[in-house]
Amino acid sequence: MQYITNGPNIPDELLEAQSRGEVVFFCGAGVSMPKLPGFYGLVDMLYKAVGDEPTLPEKNELNNEAYDRTLSLLEKRITGGRNEVRRKLRSILDISGFGDDELGEHESLIKLSQHSGTLRLITTNFDYFFERAAEKLGKKYSITKAPLLPPAKEWRWNGLVYLHGRLPDSDDETEYNNLVLSSGDFGLAYLTEGWAAKFVSELFRSYTVVFVGYSLNDPPLRYIMDALSAEQLITASSVSAYAFDECSNGDEAAVRERWSNLGVEAIVYENNDNSHKNLTDTLQVWADTYSAGPQGKIDIVNRNMWSPPPTILAE
Q1: Which one, of 25, 26, 27, 22, lies nearest residue 205 by Cα?
Q2: pTM summary value
Q3: What's the pLDDT tens digit per position in 50-79?
Q4: How far apart (Å, rounded) are the C-alpha atoms in residues 189 and 147?
Q5: Helix 195-206 crosses helix 219-235 at what angle (to 10 degrees)?
Q6: Is residue 121 within 8 Å of 109, Cβ to Cβ?
């Protein structure tokens, strides 16, 4: 289904899974950009906040887009280390200055994540934009944050999950330590203690997963994909996973291939002007149609009955 002209084509299989309540949206930094920085921007702002410059080893990790390892080196090196770095997050990720009119994409994803009064939505972001969006929609959902995650099995889970932790409302050292930010944190979450890997593995077994707001180079995605690969090896079967990703200048086939190599089907959209409008508009129309139930589908048919066939990105 193509909800807007030149927008991404949503696979029928995904729409059918959503109608059965079997879809979980997995939301990354791109959902909150450009209001908040991505991982590279966050690292850059943290260096400025602590009044320091990357050393040569840190620059090397930064140039390799290993932002989690960069922060591990920084936290080990500076005075006050881990706590000093993490305390700066509250000002960098402060969203109090943003109005409700800037919550559109978060609202759409909340609408798309509801089924029969239940919400199942995951974010690896620390910010609380989704909570603000839910409040605007007149909704209140249970919140779970790392490392105390719910079982990902369908009948036991309802609410918003902060897979890598949530920004604390006050200077709380314990809450800061629970944030999955540096490579050491990712190692604990996905390897040593493994609570995040267990949650992600159960999720892939139980649901169709849709990634929104990630790029293939994102450190969080790298660890999630490792968990996905392990799940595929253990179960000897494929999982159902999709990812929205942009293409420009005719690189659609390459984008699809990169995701396919990870066992994920790419839902590609054109983004030649770097506005991501084709994605955000699609999510909005899709969310409104889904929320309207059968009438929403009828409205889509009526709007497009006399329209010429849309241009759909090649599979």
Answers
A1: 22
A2: 0.90
A3: 999 999 999 999 999 999 999 999 999 998
A4: 8
A5: 60
A6: yes
